[in-house]
Queue: 2 jobs
Job 1
Amino acid sequence: MGEQVVAYFWEREDAEQVAGQLDAVVRRDRFQGEDDDEDHPWMVLVPGGADLAVVEPLVTQYDGWLDAGDAGAPPAVEPPPLPTAPKRLKKG
């Protein structure tokens, strides 16, 4: 596994427990548009060399979730071309 994985937790204690077992870093993260500081999740930056077979059970045990970024995302598909003129609904 070469890319960094981020694990999210709602409780700081849970994030610190997992980070201690994985030798990872704990930070506070914000969701887009979230104003209340108390609602931000805690994120654990898991090192790139960590084994997912170890990380996933720990995250599940502490009610967290993983975000591997774009690692598993399919390649972007180019959208179809846009029309160059308005579409006529009535024949005239």
Job 2
Amino acid sequence: MFIVPKNTDLLLTEAEGENLYLKLIEQMNKDFNLANEAIDCSLNSTPDELKLLLHEKIYRLIQYKFAEYLNLLYIIDVSEEEIKKLDGSDLVVLAEQVSFLILKREWQKVWFRNKY
């Protein structure tokens, strides 16, 4: 049964523990490329590097390329309901929260593909 991790660090630790961390990176690269917003995350990236890279990318998209940001969320299939619950008053915090939602959705895809 899929259990949603509580935060980014737990999610990445779980991905590493199940030997699916590389698949998670591959899935993220694939979906970002589909949205024409390549993230270019190396398979050698540590979880901390991945987290920072994703946070910076989302921050820049929200601030400078909002339409592309919305398209990315659509392509990844991030829950619109969860996005609407977020407080957008602090852009840095918002980017961090959206990064977690993206990772959570990508992890869900990888986990289910691996189990079933």
